[in-house]
Design goal:
The protein has 4 helices and no strands. It is mostly helical and 70 residues long. The longest helix is centred in the last third of the chain and has 17 residues. The radius of gyration is 11 Å and the shape is globular.
């Protein structure tokens, strides 16, 4: 992984820390690698707007599957 990519992944991981009450911390690094900056921003927006925790977990899982599939 290049230095720029590594920095992006680390930044996304830190942003996902804000969602630690919703998303499993054990998957934080994996999600940071799979998700894009826009995916993380979407999850944070939905959490801020009050979307349910189960819905956010399902969305994060779906995004991860889609990213891996593409």
């Amino acid at each position: 992984m290049s230095g720029a990519s590594s920095t992006s992944v680390e930044r996304r991981a830190e942003e996902l820390d804000a969602l630690d009450a919703i998303l499993p911390f054990a998957r934080r690094d994996q999600l940071a690698t799979l998700l894009t900056d826009q995916d993380v921003a979407t999850l944070k927006y939905l959490a801020k707007e009050g979307m349910g925790a189960n819905t956010l977990r399902a969305l994060a899982s779906d995004l991860g599957y889609l990213e891996a599939w593409c």
